[in-house]
Design goal:
- It is a single chain.
- The chain is mainly alpha-helical and 271 residues long.
- Helix content is 34%, strand content 7%.
- The strands form 2 sheets. A 3-stranded parallel beta sheet has the order 2-1-5, sandwiched between helices. It has a two-stranded antiparallel ribbon with strand order 3-4.
- A hairpin with a 7-residue loop joins strand 3 and strand 4.
- It starts with 11 loop residues before the first helix and ends in a 9-residue tail after the last helix.
Length: 271
């Protein structure tokens, strides 16, 4: 249970728009998904930039969520939003939905060799389009998942992420490594802000081989008042989510160690 967590909205774009604009949900510039953040609304990133901070954005910022993407080099709207350096991506669905890479993450995955040979594709990006669901197969409708019954939405995903044994290429691990790289490039003596958004703990939960083994045999309490799934399916989803969170815990510990090593002089506030 998260006892010290807060979000202005349960939806991706409205939550991030409220954070970027420093406005409550009812006044936020975006109240639904699938739309870009309006560039005529100032962000706190821009305010920090004007105050002299070097602003780094890494991961799923969701402020350019239209299917156009953030561009293969991440530059789309980056200057207007107030980013000095960045490694940006769409969510797990959109990053694989196009017929060509649309962000920095998918562009990087297109250059890496697939770690599993189930799909017949050669790159991680191509293999995971088969796994997660591509343009003709919406997210969660790829070969690694099955849709939940009825009209409730969601998926169960017994298949594995196509990075195979290369955990460092899994989306959250890869994003965190890029954050450490960009942090190391901040000009000496310059104060900095790093906004890091992990895309992993969001359905569909598709694990790596190592993450799958980390929760093997783990038991969790049954779901409350939900008979849509079998007990086995409930347990699978809970194990997968636990693996996602525990992987983030490991990654964040490593990133904080990197921060101390790269910026020993900094008085870092972690939010």
């Amino acid at each position: 249970r998260f006892s010290f967590a807060y979000t202005p909205s349960p939806l991706c774009v409205p939550a991030r728009s409220a954070l970027a604009s420093v406005l409550p949900y009812d006044e936020s510039p975006q109240t639904m998904n699938f739309k870009d953040y309006p560039l005529d609304v100032p962000t706190w990133y821009s305010a920090a930039q004007k105050a002299g901070y070097h602003v780094i954005a890494v991961g799923k910022d969701d402020l350019t969520q239209s299917r156009v993407g953030t561009a293969a080099d991440g530059s789309r709207h980056a200057a207007a939003l107030g980013y000095d350096s960045y490694f940006r991506m769409q969510d797990k669905g959109a990053t694989y939905a196009g017929r060509a890479p649309i962000d920095q993450f998918s562009s990087a995955m297109a250059k890496l060799s697939c770690g599993r040979n189930e799909s017949g594709a050669s790159s991680v990006w191509g293999c995971n389009r088969w796994c997660y669901g591509a343009a003709e197969l919406p997210i969660g409708m790829g070969q690694c998942c099955s849709p939940l019954p009825g009209d409730q939405g969601g998926w169960t995903c017994p298949g594995l992420d196509q990075v195979g044994k290369h955990q460092e290429e899994y989306v959250d691990d890869y994003v965190a490594a890029r954050a450490a790289e960009l942090l190391g490039q901040v000009p000496d003596g310059k104060p900095w802000i790093l906004h890091l958004s992990f895309p992993g703990p969001h359905p569909p939960f598709i694990l790596t081989e190592a993450m799958n083994k980390s929760v093997e045999g783990r038991q969790f309490p049954p779901a409350f008042d939900n008979d849509k799934l079998s007990p086995e399916e409930h347990l699978q989803v809970r194990r997968q989510y636990a693996a996602e969170i525990e992987n983030l815990d490991r990654i964040m510990g490593r990133l904080l160690e990197s921060t101390d090593a790269l910026r020993p002089e900094s008085n870092t506030l972690v939010v």
